[in-house]
Amino acid sequence: MFVGHFAVGLGAKEFAPKASLATLIFAAALADVLWIVFFPLGLEQVVIAPGIMVANSLDLVSIPFSHSLLADAVWALLFAAIYFWRSHDSRGAWIIAAAVLSHWVLDVVTHRPDMQFAPGIETRVGLGLWNSRLGTVIVEGGLWLAAIVLYVRATRPTGRAGVYAFWIVIAILTALWLLSLNGDPPPSLKTLAVVDTVFFIVVLAWAAWMNRVRRTT
Question: Which domain holds residue 99?
């Protein structure tokens, strides 16, 4: 998923009001962040395969350390433990752990059967939602819309930036997501990793800014 993972972080703010929106979004997207780290190190393998799915062109040959259920459970516990150690917010820690694990669940829904349960176990699952653009729009779009509603209900703007900066970026993310459904292959995996890294840093910076210009109700 694309905005689906961001939706988890956005919607989680209502259930973890003390946690930073940037932290929640980072948790929900952690598996993809780890892939960007593990791929150049040769620990995981992804191949560009145009047409492999209607709305996706990547063949996830082996990504057990960033995207398997067991690995994501370990990362969830580690991330939640670090958050609790720094904040003493037990509720937020549980929500963060759930956000990290949600990545595997959402990817199982969207991917073809390429999601592993654990490193070394070759059984793979995936429901293949990405083979239907309409289905993806309905499911992921519905999740995105629900998350926006939850976040707007859980926060209020402290000034104009909390209104305009929020909705402008939401509109941009929605447009980019819709464009991504074409399934166009990236020029290269290295280019994809660089673009994703820059894009994610920008989104996290925006999320951190939202903590300053939108307060929890």
Answer: 3-216
